[in-house]
Amino acid sequence: MSCVPVAIFGCRSQVAGGLCFFDEQILLYAAGASCVQFHIEQKWQKFIPGSEKSQGMQALAISPNRRYLAISETVVEQPAVTVYEVSLVPSRRRRTLAAAELPVREFVALAFSPDSRYLAAATGPPEVHLAYWLWEKQRLMAAVRIEAPGSGLCQVSFSPQDNAQVCITGNGIFKLIKYSEGTLKTTSLQKGELQNYLCHAWLSAEKVVCGTDTGKLIIFESGEVRWETSKMQQQKDLGGKSLGLTSFSAFYSSDISCDLVSEDNGSQQDSLPQICAVAAYSKGFACSSSPGVVLLFEKTEEKEAYKETQEIWIPRDFCNSEPEQSGREDIICICFSPSEEMMIISTTKNQLYMFNMPSTEIVKEKSAHFIYLHFPLHSDSITGLDTCIRKPIVATCSLDRSVRIWNYKTNTLELYKQYQEEAYTVSLHPTGLFCLVGFSDKLRLMSLLYEDMHVFMEFTVRGCRECAFSNGGHLFAAVNGNVIHIYSTTTFENTNNLKGHSGKICAVKWSADDAKLVSCDTHGAVYEWNLLTGKRESECVLRSCKYSSIALSPFAKIIFAVGSDQTLKEISESSILHEVPAFDVVYTAIAVSHSGHMLFIGTSLGTIRTMRYPLPLPTEFNEYQAHAGPVTKMSITDDDLFLLTASKDGSFLIWKVYDKEGQILKREKEVEYAEEVLIMRSDIEEKGQAMLDLQIRVKELQTENDYQLRLKDVNCNEKIKEIKEIFTQEIDCLKTKHEILQAEKEKQELQHQYQLFELMKKQAREVQDLESSNNQKLLMENEKYQELQVKSQRMQEEYEKQLHDLEESKSKALEELTEYYEEKLNEKSVLLEETEETIRQQLHIYEEIKKQIEDDEDREIQEIKIKYERRLQEEKESNLRLKGETGIMRKRFDSLQKDIEERNSEIEEIKLEQQKLQGIITSLEKDILALKREIQERDDTIQDKEKRIYDLKKKNQELEKFKFVLDYKIKELKKQIQPRENDIIVMKEQIREVSNMVIWLLLLSLLSGYKDGQADPLENSTLFMEGELERFHKQNAQLELNITELQRKLKATDREVHRERQKEQNMKALIKRFKTDLHNCVGFIQDSRKLKDRICELYTKYVHQTDMVETVELDTDLQQEYIRQREYLERNFATLKKKVVKESEIHRADYVRIMQENVSLIKEINELRQELKVTRTQVHDLQSTLGLTKKKQVIRDPAVLRLNAEKESEKIIEMQQLEIQRLRDQIQEKGQVLAIQPLSDGRLPMLNLEGSHRT
């Protein structure tokens, strides 16, 4: 698969010359790591990618013929200038210019010469160099070093009419440099105070206008200051309509003072604005005077004077939280189209604006506003990006406090809003109707309306850096530090809190079925959460890596993670399956296609890498130049057709994904996107009311217009009548004038005819006189001509005779010479051929030597020139300095000697202090090393403790199981005790009742005894009650005995449980040690001797007599259980043996029965065959008697029948023999099984005590 960029939304305004027109409609500007060709009307984009391993573009320049584009880049820490031919489709790289001989890091400014043959490039401070190339031949013609007293960027440009004239400006730099005879010479320097020149532009072949950081505009002519303007800005009111025009004061160069002219009228600001951009056009020039405004200046009729004609303001952004401050952006680049019908600007907030220049002075307004070239763009790092399923939209948020909704199908911005807090993360609901945004103070849930974003729910999650809707949209996850909060989208309740991360969580991803959630943090942990239980299912921790992004395979079986360790990790079931190196690049973001066959990875250099899945063993990937900063977020659309990437440089890029054959991927099902939008009821009501108001207003205006039209018709009719009368009067007057003029015309015609007649007469006379005089002259000349003709004939005859004689002599001489020279020519031709061959060889050798010598001489000459020029300049400067400084140095020499002595003493003291500090540094370094060792040891102890905690947790779980068993036993014992306690309570109540009864009976008996004088009833009742009390006392004693017995049993069970736990822990430790020893033993599986020795050691180590003693000393209950199981198994074995014997006997009886049946059946078959034979003979005899068969056939048939019968009997016998053999084999196998099963000593095998303990 491959990726092709479709559109980029961003701009790198810090690139020098970052705006230039290719033609009237195509604009070139830097965005991301590419140069973009943008069609202003049709809105399409084409890309000129940067070089591989490029660290970003620094400058752009287009040639005057609009054919070539120069781009300055830094590739592998070396500056390079690449020239592209943009007139071709696609753009083709023509030349790459390098400056290995110059000590430069980057070229910050570029410019083409007027004929597009030469290229000038300037490097940045502190060492400013100017290079001059003949770029088509990649030849560096000259280079010069320029001293820069201050820091800041430089600008370079060619004179519009001179290929050799270059202007360079910067902080304290203004120089006009001319190329001549292989060197760059400074023709003029600024006199007076040096200033920080931020920009400049050529107004003509000799004039240059410059803008400074103090708000001045200075015009230089031939390097001398001719005009200087001091700018005073007036405050703009809140409406942005009243702005005082810039006032100018022009001076001649002799009257210039270097001080800033400032006249404080009460409205001037404390600091003057900077002029950051200047651009010239045919009528004058444009400059950015203050934040958010461009001033147009045009040349006046006065001598060399310019006047401000128009102000163009950046519009206010009403989507901004502070609309009044939205237009306060510094303009750093201005560009005019070739026809000067359009002006484009770029600002410090990475925005692009356009303005259509007025065609006439009548249309021109004093104040106007820019419009956006494309859309409002992000001006800071993009921190969040997300897509949805039901709509072709993508949401982005940035540190510029804005949230934007883009349409990746139409490449448009659908919604945009700016807030007062920074937005850290964004997530779109799968329906595309809702949006979740994490701000620095709260987490807000918004509905995406038709023209707005409406916040309808806020959650108290501060500084939420990551959030994500589930694939079904019913839940969403929000990160707060190291905790993940799960909320319901319908009830807005916090359904779950996932805790466990020790570091800040960087990314969260939902599985396709929303049952799992995967997260990663900065401490190298990747956790997989089960949302049904709220617990971790798996974990993978790597402390040395700070994870930045994760992605899931389609079925959530594999996790892909990237981080600071420069690898791509493939994680499954808490382990890293595969690690893919990044080759000295940090991976920052990752996305997986929904088909699961492709991985898309973003790097810290801003590039995009694509890999196939499964990952190939030799790492293979395609890398694409994308952004100028690290990739922060990546996402792929639900249909796998578009890849969306965002970067720290504020750019947002849309890629189209193609398959291997370069075709667009096709989905199995074409899903139509939803076209529904949300709108507030109040908005609908307001719009309905506004429509009603407008309809009423339209009706009123119609009636007013009709009335006004009628009035105008009446007035017009009256005016027409008046005008008709006036015109009729004027027509009459004109008719009279016409008649008068006609009469005058006739008079003048008569006069003209008379004058013509007289002139004709004069002319005829003069012609006659001239003819007579000329005839006489002609006669004289004719006579002379005839005489000369006779002389010429004579001379001609003489010359002809002489020529004839000479020709004959010459012909003879020529014949002799031709013969002689033909012989010589033949000889010379042979010699010439030989010499030509030698000459060709020598010329070829000479040309090669000449080229090498010329190249070497050119290089040496250039190096020598550069060296001697530098030496000359340095010596001249040093001579000038030395002449001026010799006198001063003599005076200062004595004072400097004293200072030197003092300094030497101070240096000795400083050296002593340095030695002391060096000792302190060494001791501190030792302390640092010791502390690092302590940290490493503590990390090791922490890891050991974590392992110990993990083991203890497992033991705790097992103890909890035992606790549950004991609790269950205790509950059962309590249930047994509870009825006894209830009986005791009942008995006690009965005792109380009986005691009460006894008391009552005693009282009654006493009363009756006193009355009757008898004592027998009282004695009887007391005897009865004593018997009852004795019975109750016995029952209570029995119950107390039962209670004590149950308590003893409970204590015994507690002891037994404790003993079993101790045994289990000992067994686990033993098993663990045995496993480790066994694992070490497996390492010698290839060496049989060492393996045998190790196994013997294991036997001697783990099989002791003490083990046998321990088995003997097992509990009696366990031995009884073992004996019982053994007896049960022996009984089962005996019964099974009896069953086998019975079944074998039954099988033998069946076998005998089957054999007997087979014998009887064979006999019956033979009898039937004989009967059939007899019947066939009878039939044949009958047929012979009837004459139906021949005699031969009668003789043949009986023999045939006899042969068939014999064959069939043989087959039957063979089948029976095979069946008998099979049954015999079965009987032997059964006998062998019965013989193997009884043990040799009659004992059962040893019982697995460990297994019985576990059960």
Strands, total number: 57
Structural class: alpha+beta
The largest pleated sheet is described as: 5 strands, mixed
Oligomer: single chain
Strand order of the largest sheet: 22-23-24-25-29
Uncertain stretches of 5 or more adjacent residues: 232-271, 1010-1015, 1105-1112, 1188-1203, 1237-1255
Q: Based on CA inertia axes, which overall geometry fits?
A: elongated
Beta-strand percent range: 25-35%
Number of helices: 8
Distance between the termini: 58 Å
Radius of gyration, in angstroms, nearest whole number = 57 Å
Helix fraction, binned, reads: 40-55%
Defining traits:
1255 residues, alpha+beta, 5-stranded mixed beta sheet, 4-stranded antiparallel beta sheet, 8 helices, 44% helix, disordered C terminus, coiled coil, WD40_rpt, WD repeat, Cilia and flagella associated protein 57
Protein described:
With 1255 residues, the chain is α+β, with helices and mostly antiparallel strands. It is 44% helix and 28% strand. The protein contains eight helices and 57 strands. A hairpin with a 5-residue loop joins strand 31 and strand 32. Helix 2 crosses helix 3. The two termini are 58 Å apart.
Note the topology.
Blueprint: E1 2-9, E2 19-21, E3 26-31, E4 34-39, E5 45-49, E6 54-62, E7 68-75, E8 78-85, E9 92-98, E10 107-112, E11 118-123, E12 127-134, E13 139-147, E14 155-159, E15 162-170, E16 173-180, E17 183-189, E18 197-202, E19 207-212, E20 216-221, E21 224-230, E22 278-281, E23 284-290, E24 293-299, E25 306-313, H1 323-326, E26 331-336, E27 342-347, E28 352-356, E29 367-369, E30 371-372, E31 382-387, E32 393-398, E33 402-407, E34 412-418, E35 423-428, E36 434-439, E37 443-448, E38 453-459, E39 467-469, E40 475-480, E41 483-488, E42 494-499, E43 505-510, E44 516-521, E45 525-530, E46 535-541, E47 547-552, E48 559-563, E49 567-572, E50 575-581, E51 587-592, E52 598-603, E53 608-612, E54 622-624, E55 631-636, E56 642-647, E57 652-658, H2 681-1012, H3 1016-1082, H4 1088-1102, H5 1105-1112, H6 1116-1186, H7 1191-1236, H8 1249-1254
Parallel strand pairs: 25-29
Antiparallel strand pairs: 1-57, 2-3, 3-4, 4-5, 6-7, 7-8, 8-9, 10-11, 11-12, 12-13, 14-15, 15-16, 16-17, 18-19, 19-20, 20-21, 22-23, 23-24, 24-25, 26-27, 27-28, 28-30, 31-32, 32-33, 33-34, 35-36, 36-37, 37-38, 39-40, 40-41, 41-42, 43-44, 44-45, 45-46, 47-48, 48-49, 49-50, 51-52, 52-53, 53-54, ...
Domain Cfap43 N-terminal: 17-222
Domain EML-like second beta-propeller: 383-657
InterPro entries: Beta-prop_EML-like_2nd (IPR055442), CFA-57 (IPR052993), Cfap43_N (IPR056296), WD40/YVTN_repeat-like_dom_sf (IPR015943), WD40_repeat_dom_sf (IPR036322), WD40_rpt (IPR001680)
